[in-house]
Amino acid sequence: MANLLTRIGFIDETSVKTNMAKTTGWAPRGERLVDHAPFGHWQTQTFLAALRHDRIDAPWVIGGAMNTRMFDLSIATQLGPTLQKGDVIILDNLAVHKSPKAAQVLKVIGCWFLPLPPCSPDPCVAKNSPLDCFLSAPHPSKWPSSS
Questions:
Q1: Does residue 85 lie within any of the structural domains?
Q2: Residue 106, in any domain of the structure
Q3: Which of 86, 96, 91 has its CA nearest to residue 118?
Q4: 108-128 pLDDT per residue, tens
C-alpha cells in the first residue's frame, strides 16, 4: 500500500485578493490609524498545485481567478509533464475541474482524474475544502448501531 502513495496527487488551488486588506482598525485614543494596503490594485492571484504525500508538484500562480481555460493549460503544461502512467489525480468539486480537455490530456499519459464525492447537502454549512467535509461528517460514535 505504501508504494501506491507515490501514484496519488490532489489538485487544489487557493486565491488571494489584494482587497482583503482591512480598511478599519484600532489606534490609541486621540490618534489616527494610518496603514497601507499592499499594491492597491485590488486584483486576484490564484495558486494551483498538485499535492503529493512528499512534495508539491506543478506549482503555478496565475493572475486572476481560475477558469476552465487556465485549468486546461495548467494540466497540459505544468502537471502533465510530472505525471507517470497509472497516476491518479484527485479533484475537489470546483466546476472548472470537470474539464473534458484536461481529462483527455491525462488519458493520453495513462492517468485519470478521481473527483471527490459532494459534501454534505446541508446548505447552511460552508464547504471550502475536503477537510471541511471530513470535519462536518458525523462522528462514528454517533452512528446508529446495527443491532
A1: yes
A2: yes
A3: 91
A4: 999 989 988 876 555 444 545
